[in-house]
Amino acid sequence: MLTPQTKATKLAKALGLNTDLYLKREDLHPFGSHKGRSIPKMIEIYGNKGHGKFCVSSSGNAALAAARYINRLSGSGLKFRTELVIFVGKNIEPKKMDALKKEAGSNHITIHQVANPKREALKMENGDAAINLRQSTDDVALIGYEELADELLQIKNLAAVFIPTSSGTTAQGLHEAFKKADKNPQIHIIQTMSCHPIVKALPTKYKEERKDEVVEKSLAKAIVDLVGFRREAIAEAIKSSRGFGWVANNKDIEEAIELIKKTEKIVPSPNSALSLVGITKALNRGLKFDGPIACILTGR
Questions:
Q1: What is the 3-state secondary structure (H, E, C) of 58-85?
Q2: Do 27 and 91 lie in a common domain?
Q3: What is the tally of structural domains in the chain?
Q4: Of 33, 49, 56, 161, which one has the fewest beta carbons inside 10 Å?
Q5: Last residue of a domain, one of 114, 132, 150
Q6: pLDDT tens string 237-272
């Protein structure tokens, strides 16, 4: 399912970038975000194996991708019946909750707002034979990013991809798909001051150290995975691609949002803006690129 990847000429000029810059608009994905790559693929694969009941714990994007996909399937003559139970937290963004409610209301999608969504989803997985759509630990999710990698590789001589990162599933999925295509663009991940276990675990030469700053509640609310199950795989991806791990504070995010608004007339979410923070930091560090770079705007 193609999303636009537009050349950001004015933004590249403002950054002083000497190569082309592309914005990969996953925020325009019909299922709401880059999670529309992995979550539907998980449902499809498990559904074709005979599973029809799914659950998901989410801050919004994964649940929205699952709900929209299942609603699309419900009228398409499925070979398997689907049921989706969504667990969201008490502090979910109101706009995301409203979007989920629009997708629910049928007898095959229910929403539960609970104190600990992850725990409730795990309980359902263990006790009710439901498939937990947990892309942070399930490698089936990686398959969904092969399509995204194929689209990015339409950019000739792609040199680097900057990826806002929570669990690292997108970064790992892209790197593995690039390898299958015998390509090796740099993998750059960007996390936040309040949640950066994957960057923290990287070897010193591949990460930005920001120990002296006050840890604040990040504007990028979708960066929540404090465990970093995929940290070893991401470390290998960054090392083998000559990439890097960056850490953003709120000032960085706010400046990135304003720069994209000013140059490209796009209003990115704080989560999406992390990718531009990474590019800015790379340029400030003196990194050079021998081809175009892509900045993934992950979701709304």
A1: ECCHHHHHHHHHHHHHHCCCCCCCCEEE
A2: no
A3: 2
A4: 49
A5: 132
A6: 999 999 999 999 999 999 999 999 999 999 999 999
